[in-house]
Amino acid sequence: MRPSARTADALRPIRITRQYTRHAEGSVLIEFGDTKVICTASVEESVPPFLKGKGEGWVTAEYGMLPRATNTRSRREAASGKQTGRTQEIQRLIGRSLRAVTDLSALGERQITIDCDVIQADGGTRCASITGGFIALHDALSALVTAGKLPALPIKDFVAAVSVGIYQGQAVLDLDYPEDSGCETDMNVVMTGSGRFVEVQGTAEGEPFSRDEMNALLDLADAGIRQLIDFQRKALGV
Amino acid sequence: MRPSARTADALRPIRITRQYTRHAEGSVLIEFGDTKVICTASVEESVPPFLKGKGEGWVTAEYGMLPRATNTRSRREAASGKQTGRTQEIQRLIGRSLRAVTDLSALGERQITIDCDVIQADGGTRCASITGGFIALHDALSALVTAGKLPALPIKDFVAAVSVGIYQGQAVLDLDYPEDSGCETDMNVVMTGSGRFVEVQGTAEGEPFSRDEMNALLDLADAGIRQLIDFQRKALGV
Amino acid sequence: MRPSARTADALRPIRITRQYTRHAEGSVLIEFGDTKVICTASVEESVPPFLKGKGEGWVTAEYGMLPRATNTRSRREAASGKQTGRTQEIQRLIGRSLRAVTDLSALGERQITIDCDVIQADGGTRCASITGGFIALHDALSALVTAGKLPALPIKDFVAAVSVGIYQGQAVLDLDYPEDSGCETDMNVVMTGSGRFVEVQGTAEGEPFSRDEMNALLDLADAGIRQLIDFQRKALGV
Amino acid sequence: MRPSARTADALRPIRITRQYTRHAEGSVLIEFGDTKVICTASVEESVPPFLKGKGEGWVTAEYGMLPRATNTRSRREAASGKQTGRTQEIQRLIGRSLRAVTDLSALGERQITIDCDVIQADGGTRCASITGGFIALHDALSALVTAGKLPALPIKDFVAAVSVGIYQGQAVLDLDYPEDSGCETDMNVVMTGSGRFVEVQGTAEGEPFSRDEMNALLDLADAGIRQLIDFQRKALGV
Amino acid sequence: MRPSARTADALRPIRITRQYTRHAEGSVLIEFGDTKVICTASVEESVPPFLKGKGEGWVTAEYGMLPRATNTRSRREAASGKQTGRTQEIQRLIGRSLRAVTDLSALGERQITIDCDVIQADGGTRCASITGGFIALHDALSALVTAGKLPALPIKDFVAAVSVGIYQGQAVLDLDYPEDSGCETDMNVVMTGSGRFVEVQGTAEGEPFSRDEMNALLDLADAGIRQLIDFQRKALGV
Amino acid sequence: MRPSARTADALRPIRITRQYTRHAEGSVLIEFGDTKVICTASVEESVPPFLKGKGEGWVTAEYGMLPRATNTRSRREAASGKQTGRTQEIQRLIGRSLRAVTDLSALGERQITIDCDVIQADGGTRCASITGGFIALHDALSALVTAGKLPALPIKDFVAAVSVGIYQGQAVLDLDYPEDSGCETDMNVVMTGSGRFVEVQGTAEGEPFSRDEMNALLDLADAGIRQLIDFQRKALGV
């Protein structure tokens, strides 16, 4: 029995609110149950130095968590003067995942920055960030098309992410915090609309996992991400 | 005529949502029009080194802004590795303002940290932070009373804050961003329920201001803060 | 009775020494009693990036304190790797105060940096910095006029600052350290030669203060600053 | 045809030199072809604060690269004042991988720090670090047994790592730099002696990858890691 | 001919002002011509962690320069967030030099921090810091004796420092800035009252120097330091 | 008797391995007994800002030590976020020493960076770095000549370094760690092939040293460096 009484293959309630804040070109509040992340997309008409003059664009991400998004207050990274290794890993993952479905050469010399800020955490914040970040990115790019700055949406496919894990011997989908902190194996899967993988990151927190367990987890993730992409389509009306 | 078409002495619509997030002992979303700040209060059963063994408590504040809370994306302070001077000024002001109405010796050797994170900015974020931070503090302290850890609420008075300024030659209340960025003089006033000042910070952005102008601004602020404290009372049901 | 036996409206002995060090375009030692600050003005023939190409100049300030300027040695900021919030607040205040009386568009694309370094502290260091910094700025700008780089002095008015406070129930002028650390309310006032305010920063350290107390403090500050500006005129011989 | 003319399932020449330097409790030079990493294990008779008094030990890792280990000199992290996100990801991975096969409760309140310093890089540095780090850890723990500080070796299994990827449409084992920088998909696999996974990290650098491709990569990795563990056994003589 | 028209073996005018500032246990303004350094000694009744419980004391130094102590304004180290390599070299040298003449075991578990802050620079700031720092240290230690905290002055000898160099082919004593920046070889010599060396640091800025040149420089330094120690004796009245 | 049983004037076994790693333009492993340092030279076709457009080149050095190069693990500087004062002193010394024998104006607008990374430490790491760094520099410059980018080798002389000291009352050459940590006086001498000094840095760790002792140390260093330069010639085959 899962702490939330969900079945092994059930996502938490997913809510996607577009235009959540006013200033950003894309702004989304995404909720995976009690996990709530604000994802904004900001367009900048220039690229980082390593891309100057190449005619290509860039998509990057930054991730943060309000100090009291979690059960115990964690130290504010701005006050401690550096981002933790965990923060850096997550924001690199979000950036890679969104770049994988963006046609960077069709974007032109522009950078889109996706800011993912967790205002309440209950497990799965990086997956919610990727899933919601995609909507924010989509909105920002659509605005560029509407404004006549791009001829067509430079998006190659949908992308979403979910966590899966072995919790008390059973493969389960979309871990919440009690599962995440108590599971044997934790896997984050990023997948496209066409069912191909962008990232698979499986970690044995306790016992190492077998090939069969890995396959069971990938099956669950596959089904879960298909549902998440349906939520994305519905939210975007496409 | 003000950009928002408000009268000179009108506050923006004020909304206070308690229990906005789940984990903190006090959690408030406060809105001054389009300015939206999440204020959480976290209780810690220890005090900073300079208070160890003195039997007194402490209230402190940290302030942050999501990178795209503003019209143009600003750099994430956690990424740049330090808090700006502006951030530090604001969080010191919030902390002083809340300490001014807290009975620190009745609090015992505990620290309450008020985190004020701006998710959307339209002027007046420090005033919203103080006004909302007070509610979060009140909730956290009430919870300590309910839990039997404190015999009575160690709060001496209400406290709220508002900005006033000279905009196009006229003294106006509760500046929004277009007024704030275009005004001659900007003043932040922090006042208690008994009508006494905790902080008055007036700055001539353009022309220096006269004693008469200062008096007009203080009158406006006084009336505005009385209304804000009514909103606080209503929100708290006291 | 004040610890220094001064009357409530008496400044400490004020001494202004121009050309205190040799290299800077303006160099002043200012003393408010035992508070001693070296203020230098450095001219740079370029402006910060946000002003490039606008034809305007800039005045900025930096503030520091020798580690043993105070009764107890404080940590050297260069060694700890960052400036405290207090330092940043003060240097921002000095910069704003001096810009308020400088005609930045007449200055041309130049930056004047005012360094205020406290070699001995006894309260009122930020006020001494503003008052002495103005002389250093005046000297540096005069040198530009003398050198034919500016047609006229781009100074619109005098500016000086003083602290006032409620000490043992009484409003007093120009707080020294024993008063500063023991007072109920502390107010820093920055005023021009024409008697208008550039900054008013009042803080209740203990009891919040009333409107009447605020008025009494502003009256004292007004009289004190008029005397300080007389000292400035005398020092400059204008 | 691979740039190195290896067959798809061939490892590069593997060399393991124990007791490479003199001071550390375990010191190994591991070479995967032209990739050369010095792995040392340092024993400390205390644990990090979060483990104090729990009777358990800890294994952690740090990773670095000499500035000219690579074709182009990269900036020295000690000079730039921070470790890159990549460095932090890698050292967290090494630490997790080695902890997965260590019986931390049998280790007692001790910390083993594995330092992995790349002196020459040609792809696969994190995998070489894990594979060589295990030997260094084994040596340091054996020394504790020999010294009578531990009754038995607190090691539960062997662990090694290898990278696999899709290079020019083909799944290949143990990528060198030309393959690593040109491949479509890159996967790092960490596996135990009993053939279970500790970590699987697959990333689509270009095209997302299919489930079939993932399976082909895992098959290659499985075979490669079994060979690496044989090299480890031979080096350790167990 | 030297730029200052001094003879090759002439010191600049030396001035030592004790009790220069009010708060420190020792406070000295030392002037080597136009080089002016404030040296303070601060007593702390504890020692750094590496000396805890050993019954010994410690003497350490910190060095800084006001941004406009020099001809061109240099960046404030507190603002840039780190001390330069030059600053660190100098403060380590001052600390070593003063420890060499202090009986640390007779000092007890106390630390004396010598702060040397250059308010005007014209070459030789590290030598002036050592020479003046010794007086500040002497005063602080004498105060401990007077206060009955130490039975006798834990000072083993006098110590002073001077720079010498090869300027336009000639060995000269006590280089000022024009000589320092134009010389071939620069040597800083730290010597005790008994004529033994504590530090000798010779650097070829241009042409490497011969053994004969080195001997000529050491002769000059020896004579100069004897004079400086006479100035110290006179200042201290011992 | 020296701990190593060497005679007072004996160097440790010296080994120089060129082309030690693959990527750098010059790459040398130098061993002074158990002290082992990897020295690489990297050529960059640009100069630091202060030399832009002057037609001159630059040689600079960076120094590091693997955390477990020493008997006790020291903190990784990249993790602590800054280089120690000792590291900065050493890398400045290496850079100055190598620049002293390089014809910077013949080098053209190029920078050579010498990285010296200690993989095993047993005293004398800075001297080994200078001696080995010279070979790496020589190799990198020779490669520029071979590639036709320079008409002739811009090297004016050989340079090498050795430490000498007073150990148990006797002047000894090439201190190893037991001698270095126990000696009264420690001196690092950098000398050219023509027998002139580039740097002499003598420090009394315990008793100050006399002029006679200094002369004895310089004699030993002179003889030692002549041998080191022979090793360099042999290694380079010149």
From TrEMBL, chains A, B, C, D, E, F:
Enzyme class: transferase
Keyword field contains Metal-binding: no
Cell wall biogenesis/degradation among keywords: no
Quaternary structure and interacting proteins, as annotated: Homohexameric ring arranged as a trimer of dimers.
Similarity comment: Belongs to the RNase PH family.
Domain called Exoribonuclease phosphorolytic: residue spans: 11-140, 157-221
PROSITE patterns tied to this protein: RIBONUCLEASE_PH
Protein name: Ribonuclease PH
Catalytic activity, reaction form: tRNA(n+1) + phosphate = tRNA(n) + a ribonucleoside 5'-diphosphate
Superkingdom assignment: Bacteria
Binding-site residues for phosphate, renumbered to this chain: R86, G124, T125, R126
Function: Phosphorolytic 3'-5' exoribonuclease that plays an important role in tRNA 3'-end maturation. Removes nucleotide residues following the 3'-CCA terminus of tRNAs; can also add nucleotides to the ends of RNA molecules by using nucleoside diphosphates as substrates, but this may not be physiologically important. Probably plays a role in initiation of 16S rRNA degradation (leading to ribosome degradation) during starvation.
Keywords attached to this entry: Nucleotidyltransferase, RNA-binding, rRNA processing, Transferase, tRNA processing, tRNA-binding
Stored SUPFAM superfamilies: Ribonuclease PH domain 2-like (SSF55666), Ribosomal protein S5 domain 2-like (SSF54211)
EC numbers: 2.7.7.56
Gene3D superfamilies: GHMP Kinase, N-terminal domain
